[in-house]
Design brief:
Length: about 300
């Protein structure tokens, strides 16, 4: 019996999110500190949903690193596989506050120092979903660690997952990014992409069917394309596309992490063996909840009763 619901491998860092709304970083005067990093958000959301959630990451041996350990532990994420290192500080990102895709400036140090000794074969054999991100795959040694362990996880019967949150400034080249994404897609992950991510990755606005075709051709069965306020499309190889509208929100407080909330809901429902359309409905509810909260989902909300 696999007892780890989700193993999130990748960046955990400190987000400084702008206090002023709808301005770029150039005009942001002050920032509020939040725990961030897409895999860390998914790990925390999963723990809030009652799943056994394990985080594999690296932070600096500093105040931010200690803050990260404390926050993740409080929420119930298993932190034994997060490494603290002396020689690099915890990674930090400055983010503008917006209801669209935020502007950001990364200061990346410890987050990419993930090594294979942090992920044992025994852990992988006990894991239902192995999740990572394009951000985490953009820099070595994390890149090779994640790919090698993805292959091992796949061979042990684990379902892989990836958020293809491509940002040009994190990669040495677009070609490298495409090659690494293709290498991960060989293991048939559940793929989450957004329209913005795909515009950046392909440097043009591809028709949705071409985006789905790209991933299906690389060996992926299920591709979920988020369309912001327009909702979501999901393509399963050989089946009709499912399209659902977004849940209407009166006031968007903060869009940072909405995609992570969406994917947390989807993976939660997938782990609970719900049909794919129900996975999407739960994902959309969780994204709507996130859009109404700055920084993160609230700890003190009974998300399950909101969802199911």
């Amino acid at each position: 019996m696999k007892n780890i619901d989700i193993l999130c491998v990748g960046e955990v860092l400190v987000d400084f999110i702008g206090h002023q709304t709808e301005v770029l970083i150039n005009n942001t005067r002050d920032y509020h500190r939040y725990l961030g990093g897409s895999p860390a958000n998914v790990a925390m959301n999963s723990a809030r949903l009652g799943l056994k959630s394990v985080m594999v990451a690296t932070v600096g041996k500093d105040g931010f690193g200690e803050y990260i350990f404390e926050r993740l532990s409080e929420i119930g994420v298993v932190v034994e596989n997060i490494k603290m290192i002396d020689n690099e500080p915890t990674s930090v990102i400055f983010v503008s506050r917006t209801d669209g895709t935020p502007d950001f400036i990364p200061f990346r140090k410890a987050d990419s120092c993930i090594t294979e000794d942090q992920i044992s074969k025994e852990m992988l054999a006990n894991t239902k979903v192995y999740h990572t991100t394009c951000f985490a795959l953009s820099k070595k040694p994390a890149q090779s660690t994640i790919l090698n362990k993805a292959k091992e996880a796949f061979n042990l019967g684990c379902q892989l997952s990836i958020d293809v949150n491509y940002a040009k400034k994190l990669w040495s080249s677009q070609e490298e990014a495409l090659n690494i994404i293709k290498a991960y897609c060989k293991y048939n992950p559940l793929v989450k992409v957004s329209e913005d991510d795909m515009s950046r990755l392909f440097e043009e606005d591809l028709p949705h069917d071409k985006i789905f075709e790209f991933f299906h051709n690389e060996g992926v069965d299920t591709v979920c394309l988020t369309l912001g306020s327009k909702g979501v499309k999901l393509s399963q190889k050989g089946k009709a596309i499912i399209e659902l509208p977004a849940i209407k929100i009166d006031v968007v407080m903060d869009a940072t992490g909405a995609g992570d909330a969406f994917w947390s809901g989807f993976l939660f429902a997938h782990i609970k063996e719900k049909p794919v359309e129900e996975c999407l409905q739960i994902a959309l509810k969780l994204a709507a909840l996130k859009l109404q909260n700055v920084g993160r989902l609230p700890d003190n909300i009974n998300i399950l009763s909101e969802l199911l």
